# Entry
Amino acid sequence: MVIRKFKFYSINDHDLGNQIFDCWYAYVQSVSENFQVDDQYEQVYNQFDKDPDPDKFNILHWVNPDEQIYDYIDKFDLVLLDNGVEPLGIVCSTVLYDLITSDRKNILVQCDSRFYHTQKFSDKLISRNAWNDLVRDCYTRPFYPFYYKDRFSSKQRNGMSYINGRNKSVRNYFLSMLAENTSVPIYNALSGQHVWETMTSFFETPDDTKFRDACNQKCTNGKKQWDYYDQGFEIGANGKFGNVPPGMQMLDLYYENNCVVYPETTWINNELCITEKSAKCFISGSIPFPVGGANLHQMFSQKGYHTAYHLLPHALRSFDTVLDHEQRMKQQIEAIQWLYEHQEEVFNSAECVNIRKQNYTQFFTSRDSVQAIEKFYNVVEQHYAKKFYAQS
Amino acid sequence: MHKVNFYTINESPPNQGVVTHQIVDQWAAYLQYLDQPNYRVTCDITVSEYTGQDLDQTEFNVLLHHLPDDSILQLLDTFDVVFIDNGTEPLSVCSTQTIGDLLNNKQPNVYFQLHSYFYNRPDWNNNILWERQAFHEMFKEFYCSPFYPTFYSQRNANDTRNGITYINGRNKSVRQHFFLCIGQQCPGVNLHNVLSSGVYETFDSVIETVEDTEFKDLCNTIYTIKSQQDWTYYADSILPGRQTPDVNNTRGDINPGCFLLPYYYENNCIVYPETVWINDEFALTEKSWKCFIAGVMPFPVAGAHFHQMMHDYGYYSAWSLLPDELKQWDNECDHQLRHIAQADAVAWLYDNQWVFAEDKCKEMILSNFHKFFTEQNGKQAVEKFDKIIKQHYNSKFNEC
# Structure
């Protein structure tokens, strides 16, 4: 029997993205007879002084690559780039963008983004929702204080709320429209009156750029330190289990309201990243109304989650496909106001009860990671076969 | 509360090795939860090993004792509260005589961490943190965390399920009795018994009833007993994660019984002996949890009132699908009579498999799946733990 050898080179031993190696190994076990793996799998850190062994299948894993990476790409059979498993529209670099959009066949990118349309580079993406694994831990393991919060409360709910996060200019635009045109209460404690600049994204469409530029010109009011991550909570006695950012905690609004409207982390068209903002709705049983780019609600549905969009009359659902942000937001506001005025019939309907239950179960059964790891496994197998069996 | 000192005894480093000691970390998290929005641990918590040293009686001292013998009796007055545990296993299968004695002769400062709930025994149940099911927490990880091969082995529910399979585990003599009943009374049921080629002795339990003892003695006598040394189940565990010279066994091990056989996805119903077999004791293990995950209707075989307790706890078994006249065996304390009636019920289910296609059954299966993945049983246990600590603390220091 031929024993295949795989070597996984990581640039350091502390990035979240490194976990993909252990997940990949678990997947290999799951498809092996009696879960026994005969092949060799090795992970090493920061070992680039020698060229990789040609008898092995060598994978380079590099987080937030800079130009140094060009010296190594051709030496490895596969290069797994990584943006810290964040959404690509938010965290990317010139080098990462260059490599994602290049014709190189040995590039993969581990991130937390899915794109609506088949992009030229979508084959390269390993869309792994590692952040939600952390959120799930916080709410399913008794070592975290959030575990003890009641979940999925069936107590009497009433009303809707908009919960803002960091008030970026594109969010502020929506917030202002919402305040002017609906009666939905707004919770904006994290940012107060300040408006932060919306940063450029490598994956912007012309519609995104136009909207971002307009919002930044209208809305920003100077620089201010964003101290959100300094306000995290230590977990366990003397911080034994690390710390978590404030956004992990569940505000009572999630339990009291029928529906929570909120800006998801990604705002550009056709990109989806499901973060703790949505997860808190799934856990608490409130109906999520995420605000983001075009086709966001369709993409939620593709991932097995349903939003308030699915409770709207068909005539009010058309906003989701509108690429022009101002137009889409205007239509979204109409949809939100309609929900606000029809709460009794909409949020007490059997369909709504089913959506709550489905979101809740989908989140806790945690199947998101399967597709990502399966894809990584398949790509490695294809490249392995090409390297070692193609000539024969 | 200002300070609580926890002491462990006769165990590997404090707060390591014994899964039940994790209750201290969980309580710290609960204190953080109570302190929201600040999320501080509002009490100074220490954990150390008790080696017979003098304790400061002006402080509040709690003993965590794993599987104690009689020597614990001299320590009961030394500590303000004592929590005795058996690794959150079912009491009937893992215990010491001292645990049984203390359960029956309750001392005011003694409580238990066990994975057993008893029928009509509030005097026992109120003093047991039975809701804390450490193995359930671990098993759920196997199917929720992408670091375990089990996570990837789940399949989608099959719409073309058919048939009933009896899956035996370790073939203890009391199980052999039911195995023969089902073989004789339900010829259509598929029997899966690959783990055991013989019959193993059924051990004594510290909480047996007269009916349990009679039945166990009978089964141990009439069936040929195999040496316990032939049992290699735990040696056959799967080690998740790589085994290399520098990294070994990074994520513990998974017992063979934690993996899902294809029957769980192919059949309408799985009949199996649950770990507990004595009357009036309830504990669920991986045998039932696998049914919940795979979306198949479970039919556990155990002592009297097991199905009633399972139903009261919020999980459905095939017992709920039976006509009322075929449900009565759950109250039967005579094991032989109950086994015969249970096998008749399985035969009825085999002949009437349309019940598994009904909406009522599908809702029950969905409910089991939903509850398994989302229940917060550990929360109830930690709330109970908190209440006990605070009650004794306040009583000692006259705090309100």
The mean pLDDT of chain B is 91. Chain B has 13 helices and eleven strands.
